[in-house]
Amino acid sequence: MQIFWLKRNLRLRDSEPFFLSMKASRSHGRVLPLYIHEPGLIAQPDVSRQHQMFISETLAELSEELEALGGQLLQAIGETVSVLERIHRCSPITRIWTHRETTQNAQYQRDSAARAWCRENAVEMMEVEQNGVARGNQAPCPFAEYFSRSIQMSLKDPTGADLSQRFAPLPFATCNINDIPLAMGADKPGRQRGGRRAAQNILSQFFNVRNLSRYPARISSPNTAWDGCSRLSTYLAYGIVSDREIFQAVDGVISVGHSNLTAPEFGRLQDRARFFLERLNWRRQYLQVFESHPHVETRCMLPQFDGVREAEFDEGLFQAWSTGLTGIPFIDAAIRCLRECGWINMRLRATLVSFATMNLWLPTRRVAQFLATEFLDYEPGVHHVIHQIVSGTSDFQALMVYDPMKQALDHDPQGQFIRRWVPELCELNDGEIHDVSRTAGCHSQKADDVGLGPYPAPVVDCKLTAKSAKSRIHALKNGFPDPGPVGTETHSRQMGLL
Ligand SMILES: Cc1cc2nc3c(=O)[nH]c(=O)nc-3n(C[C@H](O)[C@H](O)[C@H](O)COP(=O)(O)OP(=O)(O)OC[C@H]3O[C@@H](n4cnc5c(N)ncnc54)[C@H](O)[C@@H]3O)c2cc1C
Questions:
Q1: Distance between terminal CA atoms of the chain?
Q2: Closest Cα partner for 242 from 471, 59, 17?
Q3: Which residue, 298, 201, 199, 213, is CA-closest to 250?
Q4: Angle of helix 380-390 relative to helix 263-292, nearest 10 degrees?
Q5: Ligand 1 neighbourhood includes 418 CB (under 6 angstroms)
Q6: Residue by residue, what is the 3-state secondary structure of 50-114?
Q7: Whose CA is nearest to atom 53 of ligand 1?
């Protein structure tokens, strides 16, 4: 019997391991689709209840999809090796098919243990590359080439087929959902729903000439990013969609534009499409960096930063930041929105992390770990690498400290976003809402109703702390204090951080 092992590759469409296992069913045995709820991974500090709920919604749909094809999904609780042992005793395994993952240490160790078990039991482990990430001494393929190869590939879709003869019967009953250990935290009321249907809706609704044309203008403000961005990151992070499907959707919009637009309009559309694809290129680059530097999950990319912020860790400041009570309205609005919805746009993420690690001097790892549980789209490779860049602990020379006041004035000038998430300030006018000398001590009936006290005064002076952080980082990187503004904005802009 072959296993089709579902991890962060929760899809059947454009799933090479699924198709290859089906194809090999005559020579290597029928196929058992398997998802393992691993208590050790569920207890990791970067896993939270919202992730678990999202996965469980996705598995419920996946299970229906498999049934429609004539198969059944086995969900089991236990550590991977013991689950594989149990299956192997009931029905000997010949091959395990899955996707190769670029992921955090706990998963990496789990994969290594599974590989070792396979070697001991003469089971073949077939791991298929995804996201174009090279491993070991493979050379990464340039993005342009990867993109053109991806759009030429036909995407296999099993929908409508009868594959019942190729699926294996369940070796034992699927687990009771109520027995799965609960991850920490609470679910989020405003988060995205799991499942292929939700992802499919985005694929069919976001990718049109109108949305792609206005994408660059809408992604920076929290008031327009909500539907100006694709919101595909969570579905990509769990492999519910593949990057190839997205590339093909973009290519489809280009083809429509080519047939319907004037030459200048079409030129503009191409620019906007390139702008969107650039982000998927960064994603791939970050994953590749993480593949080669997995230690950035727990240590700084530049070792001289290890322990520096930790030595001055201030629990009070961490609490104020993580609960949205710093007294800086844009920061508090961002964290409160994130805590309820599990998503904020990239600019807000960078502003939050910059404020935490520069102005509050909080340790990068502590900040990254907290946000990993808050971001529904937590993708270890992207997440940890960007944290190192924003907090200045990577080898990128350019250093940006985001001024939260300027960010607020540029991207929420009328304060709609702040008023929505910081009800203490909802009665202030547009000018007052950005003035911290007016916001300190404010309260409103709306805030009283939800048990919020008067709005706090800023926990730090943003300008002074930014200057000090820049100077300290410069000294740690170069061995002497900051002579003034460092680096250019260009590199940060290229990496999508402005
Ligand atoms: C501190 C910090 C932490 C982040 N952590 C994550 C994370 O855990 N998971 C994650 O997917 N993204 C992360 N990002 C990148 C980015 O913020 C999100 O990918 C984006 O906001 C997701 O929304 P979207 O799908 O609507 O993106 P869109 O704007 O629609 O972009 C399309 C896709 O491109 C990719 N993308 C977009 N911006 C970036 C970027 N700057 N870097 C890399 N890839 C990008 C994503 O896969 C995204 O789905 C982080 C950014 C910062 C500053």
A1: 51
A2: 17
A3: 213
A4: 90
A5: no
A6: HHHHHHHHHHHHHHHHHHHHCCCCEEEECCHHHHHHHHHHHCCCCEEEEECCCCCHHHHHHHHHH
A7: 350
> What local confidence, expressed as pLDDT, does residue 111 receive?
96
Together in a domain, 312 and 247 = no
Residue 370 CA to residue 374 CA, distance in Å, equals: 7
- Say whether both 255 and 366 belong to one domain: no
345 lines ligand 1 (CB under 6 A): yes
Asked if residues 194 and 56 have their Cβ atoms less than 8 Å apart, the reply is yes
Neighbours of 222 (CB within 10 A): 24
Q: Do 339 and 488 have their domain in common? A: yes
**Ligand 1: nearest atom to the Cα of 237:** 11
How many structural domains is the chain composed of? Answer: 3
Mention every residue, 6+ apart, whose C-beta is less than 8 A from residue 74: 32, 33, 34, 35, 87, 170, 171, 172, 174
Taking alpha carbons only, the member of 475, 413, 70, 451 closest to residue 224 is: 413
Tokens 């740690």 sit at which residue?
Answer: 476
Q: Are 495 and 396 in contact (CB under 8 A)?
A: yes
Distance, in Å, from the CA atom of 325 to the CA atom of 318, rounded to the nearest integer, reads 10
| 184 domain-assigned | no
**Domain CATH for 97:** 3.40.50.620
347 CA distance to ligand 1 middle (Å): 10
Residue 136 lies in a domain: no
Domain boundary among 85, 108, 130: 130
Is there a contact between 376 and 192 (Cβ–Cβ < 8 Å)?
Answer: yes
Say yes or no: 327 and 420 in one domain.
yes
Question: Which of 258, 290, 322 is the last residue in one of the domains?
Answer: 290
Q: Can you give the residue range of the structural domain that contains 280?
A: 196-290
Residues 330, 225 share a domain: no
Domain holding 366: CATH number?
1.10.579.10
What torsion do the CA atoms of 108, 16, 75, 31 make, to the nearest 10 degrees?
Answer: -120
Q: Which residues of the chain have pLDDT under 50?
A: 483-494, 498
Amino acid letter, residue 147: F
Same domain as 277, residue 309: no
Atom of ligand 1 nearest to the CA of 225: 26
The closest-lying atom of ligand 1 relative to the alpha carbon of residue 286 is 43
How many contiguous H segments (helices) and E segments (strands) does the chain have?
24, 5
pLDDT at 493: 47
Do residues 125 and 246 both lie within one domain?
Answer: no
pLDDT value at residue 368: 98
Instruction: Please report the pLDDT score of residue 396 as a whole number.
Output: 82
Both 326 and 438 in one domain: the answer is: yes
Q: Residue 31 domain-assigned?
A: yes
- Give the integer Cα–Cα distance in Å for 92 and 164: 20
The answer to whether position 278 is within a domain reads yes
Give yes or no for a contact between 340 and 190, defined as CB atoms under 8 angstroms apart.
yes
How far, in Å, from the CA of 229 to the mean position of ligand 1? 10
At which residue do the structure tokens 């020379």 appear?
397
